[in-house]
Design goal:
The protein contains twelve helices and 14 strands. β1 and β2 form a beta hairpin. α4 packs across α5, α5 crosses α6 and α6 runs parallel beside α7. It has a six-stranded mixed sheet, sandwiched between helices. It has a four-stranded antiparallel sheet with strand order 2-1-4-5, covered by helices on one side. A four-stranded antiparallel sheet has the order 12-13-11-14. The relative contact order is 0.12. With 340 residues, it is α/β, with parallel strands linked by helices. The structure holds adenosine-5'-diphosphate and magnesium ion (MG). The site of magnesium ion has 3 residues, from α2.
Length: 340
């Protein structure tokens, strides 16, 4: 009987968004701009997934391909088990109700109050007025804007406008929220507040968030997964904890830039030692010096909280007969060590 019930439940995949081989160009011939090349992306249910890249890297094109605001030239897009790239117009409109989106410049209707902006997608759905008003109230409360229900966008701060944008995006109860540079127009305090709200909604509602940004700081503050986009190609992607543990990853190098950019002197090596979940442990180095014929000079280091996890990296110079043995010893302690 239990088995029977289980079979009746819809199968929920672990994956919420899957892009396979997505390419997109604008224009044609010699003037064509290849915005995306063969992009593969996998976003798991409940993740906060960041796509980072410089201006022009193709981030907006990528996020617009997820809800088919931009139609890929090639490849497939699947969201919450539904292949978006094969849907007809009516089905696509329906599927988009499960995908909310917020924008850098908020895109609010200036002639409507906060409450009326939030009500807009519900009016389109033809939700009846009493239900709609109740839902708008709930949504405004969820984003901490109950007292601004009657204010017009011009009377709101940037942070408040983005809260209206978020409430509007969540009106139809989407399972995915797409954020296109949602904090890029905000000052640092409002940026932090909006990111905290997004994290809170992610946890309270199990909302999957795909956000694009040109700021590593945004990734550091809330993402658990990341893809790095360069000239339309994904050059790295994965769980932040995995990428950070690997000192050769681009992500790790962005957070812990090499302290020295020249080469180590003859007979010595430089090593970056990454510590996860704690601080750079002094006894480790003391023991190293005791056990091996090696001299350790600390070049620098830092400890940061990345995706809610404490990560430290120590950059050292190693000199002596047993440098190689010392590095192997560190690796046996499960520390990630990159030598150059
Ligand atoms: N509608 C469009 N028509 C022509 N070129 C476009 C269009 N949208 C984007 N592009 C070009 O595609 C490239 C990627 O743009 P975009 O996705 O907006 O990058 P990002 O969001 O990372 O700054 C850029 O060279 C941009 O000029
Ligand atoms: Mg953009």
């Amino acid at each position: 009987m239990a088995g029977h019930l289980q079979n009746a439940l819809p199968q929920q995949s672990e994956k919420m968004i899957t892009l396979k081989g997505v390419s997109k160009s604008f224009g044609n011939g010699g003037n064509a701009v290849h915005a995306l090349h063969e992009v593969d992306l996998e976003v798991g249910r409940g993740e906060i997934f960041g796509v980072v890249g410089a201006s022009g890297a193709g981030k907006s094109t990528l996020i617009r391909c997820v809800n088919l605001l931009e139609k890929p030239d090639k490849g497939s897009v699947e969201v919450d088990g539904q292949v978006m790239t094969t849907l007809g117009d009516a089905e696509l409109r329906k599927a988009r109700q499960r995908i909310g989106m917020i924008f850098q410049l908020f895109n609010l209707l200036s002639s409507r109050t906060a409450a009326q902006n939030v009500a807009f997608p519900l009016e389109i759905q033809k939700m009846e007025k009493p239900l709609r008003e109740k839902r708008v109230e709930e949504l405004l409360e969820m984003v901490g804007l109950t007292d601004k229900a009657g204010s017009y966008p011009a009377q709101l701060s940037g942070g408040q406008k983005q809260r209206v944008g978020i409430a509007r995006a969540l009106a139809t109860n989407p399972s995915v929220l797409l954020c296109d540079e949602a904090t890029s127009a905000l000052d640092p305090a409002n940026t932090r507040a909006i990111l905290t709200l997004l994290k809170d909604l992610n946890q309270r509602l199990g909302l999957t968030i795909l956000l694009i940004t040109h700021e590593m700081e945004v990734v550091r503050q809330i993402c658990d997964h990341v893809a790095i986009l360069e000239e339309g190609r994904v050059v790295e992607q994965g769980a932040i904890s995995d990428l950070i543990a690997n000192p050769t990853s681009r992500l790790s190098q962005a957070f812990f830039p090499p302290i020295l950019d020249s080469q180590p002197a003859e007979g010595s090596v430089w090593a970056a030692i990454t510590f996860l979940g704690g601080s750079a442990d002094e006894p480790v180095l003391t023991n190293l010096v005791r056990k091996f014929d090696v001299e350790v000079n600390i070049l620098g280091g830092s400890i940061q909280t990345i995706g809610g996890q404490r990560v430290g990296q120590l950059q050292v110079e190693l000199k002596g007969e047993q440098t190689q043995e010392a590095v192997e010893h560190l690796r046996e302690l499960n520390l990630r060590v990159e030598v150059r």
